[in-house]
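not sure who needs this but someone in the group chat was asking about AbiEi antitoxin C-terminal domain-containing protein from Marixanthomonas ophiurae so here u go. i didnt clean anything up, its just raw.
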Amino acid sequence: MNLSDFITNQLSFENYAFTYAQIVQAYADKSETSVQSDLKYATQKGDIIPLRHHFYLIIPPRYSRFGKLPIELYVNGLFEYLDRKYYVGLYSAAKFYGAGHQQIQKEYVLHNKAPLLSITKSTIHIDFITVSNWPQKNVASRKGDAGMFNISSPCLTAVDLIYHQTKVGGLNRMLSVLEELTEEMRWEDAKDLLSWYPHKSVLQRLGFLLNEINPESDIANLIYEHLKTKKFYPVLLSPRSSEKAGAVENRWKVAVNIKMESDL
C-alpha cells in the first residue's frame, strides 16, 4: 500500500486524520525512511497537514482551497490520540448554535490535564484551554460528518465565554454572541449548570447580562434564586487587577466598569 491508497481508504470511511502508528502499520513491508519520504511529499503537496507530533490531517479536494478542515471532522480523533477529555467551546461552540455573528479566526478546545501549546499552521489556528473544574454536566455529544464530537451546551458556552473573557478578546467582543446564544438556552440546561458550576462571580455576570438582553429572562431569575441561597459579593463586569467593585445598586451586585457595545 502507498500513502495515496491509504488516504483514499481513510476518506472512504469519513476518517480525516491518522497517526504515525497507523501509517507504519499500513506500510508494514516498507522502511521507515520510505514512510517519512511519502509523508514529506504529501505534506508539500498539501494533501496532509502534520497537526501535532505523529498526528496528521487529510485535506480532501473539497477543502484544499481552504487549506484546513472544520474542527468537528478531527477533534475527537486528536483527543483520543492525546488521551484527554475535551469539548469544543467558546466561539467555536457558539457558531454551532447559530451565534456566528463574529467570524472567528481560531478554534477553541477546552480539555483536562496539563496545558497544550496552541497550534498555528498556515490557516489552522487552535487555542487549547485547560479546565481545572471539569464539567459534571452540560457537555453534549453532537453528530458531525466524521462521527460524534463533544461540545459545550449553550449555557456552558456562555459562562465559559464570560470566565475566559480576557483570553478571547474582552466582553464587548462577545456581547452579540451572548445575545444570540440566549435564544438557544433552555431551562434544563441552566438547571444542570447550576447543579455543579463553582464560579459565583461568573453566574452574577451572566445573570446581569441576561437581564440586560431580556429583563423578563426566566433563566436570569433561575440564576438569581440560586445565588440567593449563597453569599455573593460585588464584582466587576470586566475583571481588572487594578480595580475593585464598590457599592453596587443592582440585584446582581455587578459593577459595570466598561461601556457595553453590541454590534448586533
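also The longest strand covers residues 124-130. if thats useful
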